[in-house]
Automatic annotation (TrEMBL):
InterPro entries listed in its UniProt record: Glutathione-S-Trfase_C_sf, Glutathione_S-Trfase_N, GST_Omega/HSP26, GST_UstS-like_C, Thioredoxin-like_sf
SUPFAM superfamilies found in the cross-reference section: GST C-terminal domain-like, Thioredoxin-like
GO CC terms in record: cytoplasm
Coiled-coil region: none
PROSITE patterns assigned: GST_NTER
Annotated protein name in UniProt: GST N-terminal domain-containing protein
Pfam families: GST_C_7, GST_N_2
Stretches assigned to the GST N-terminal domain: 1-88
Protein source organism: Conidiobolus coronatus (strain ATCC 28846 / CBS 209.66 / NRRL 28638) (Delacroixia coronata)
Domain of life of the source: Eukaryota
Length: 234
């Protein structure tokens, strides 16, 4: 079985990385099972460094039964399409790439300001210190940003959803008639919110005034026998 290395909270053992969630969906898309190897933040780099002979230090990282070790979510998607070519995950669409990038830079930023504080509460002290010192830059926010006005960030999130909503008003999924890489990557950022901060998920998704967006989230949550809807949260 595929060994799937993931980062999780210490006590509840909740896997929360959006890149891990996207990779889980890639594996589900290919109908592949995995064995989750959970680690706290300070265990990730030494464990993955050892596994990859120092070439990589992050999650997601997969070790396949044939001995192949693959890391980085989009590279994993490419590997899966190469080794399991039926039902490809990846699609070449620069306009959708731009839509996804816009969402990451704008909506995801507001969501992180609203939700990361709740994640930190559930981390052990060592992982919390490591996250603040080494990983906050990845989200391009500071600890002070976590104290910013919730109402303003919620309003910003809703406003920045407009390009996505416009696209979804004409398409069942971001990638058209069926979900592919853009759907999986974007829903993983939303599932991250649901995982680490249920109150933020309620504010941004459940209380979202736009039915088109909520219907897409519901469709994605219903895939693979409701995998995301039943996925463990904090």
């Amino acid at each position: 079985m595929i060994e799937f290395y993931q980062v999780s909270t210490e006590s509840e053992k909740v896997s929360f990385s959006p890149f891990v969630i996207a990779t889980e969906l890639f594996l589900k898309h290919k109908n592949l099972d995995w064995d989750a190897k959970l680690m706290n933040y300070i265990e990730v780099k030494p464990t993955i460094n050892s596994l990859t002979d120092g070439k990589w230090g992050y999650v997601p990282t997969l070790k396949f039964p044939n001995g192949d070790i693959v890391y980085d979510s989009l590279k994993i998607a490419g590997y899966l399409d190469e080794k399991y070519p039926d039902n490809p995950i990846l699609i070449n669409n620069p306009k959708l790439d731009e839509l996804l990038q816009q969402h990451t830079m704008n909506c995801a930023m507001s969501a992180c300001k609203l939700s990361l504080g709740d994640l930190l509460i559930h981390m052990d002290d060592a992982s919390k210190a490591y996250f603040i010192e080494n990983r906050m830059d990845m989200f391009q926010i500071t600890v002070e940003d976590l104290k910013s006005n919730r109402k303003e960030n919620i309003t910003s999130y809703f406003d920045n959803l407009k390009p996505l909503i416009e696209h979804l008003s004409k398409n069942k999924f971001i990638d058209g008639d069926k979900p592919l890489v853009h759907d999986y990557v974007l829903i993983s950022t939303i599932q991250f919110i649901a995982t680490v901060s249920p109150r933020t998920y309620e504010e941004l998704v459940e209380n979202n005034p736009n039915e088109v967006f909520k219907n897409w989230v519901d469709r994605m949550g219903s895939l693979f026998d409701g995998f995301l809807k039943s996925r463990k949260t904090i």
